[in-house]
Give the backbone structure.
Amino acid sequence: MDTTRIDKWLWAARFFKTRSLATDAVERGKVRFNGERTKPSHNVKIGDTLLIDNGATEWEVLVCGISDKRGSAAAAQTLYGETAASAEKRRLSSEQRHFFREPTAALKGRPTKRDRRLLDQSSS
């Protein structure tokens, strides 16, 4: 097997929990194939570069293996190699989130009266 669909590969490499989430991400342009937008049915092969934004983190990976079946996490990590720049960028953003947490990140939707009071107290 030399190639597989990009949405299947993203699911097998465990960047997304379901294949439909992977398909949606590719359609919305959250996954770039060799720097360009692509379709979910596009085939990937060893040596291709993918830019992946799965909502929580952004990855720049090189395809090192092909699989269309989801296996263990250890097996999934053999399918790709992360670039050094991407790993450093993820480390820095993780460090930044550790030291400074966005105050509104915990709020879901419109703040309640209590939430507003707490926000006002913390800003004064």
Observations:
- Helices lie at 6-12, 19-27, 73-77, 84-99, 113-123.
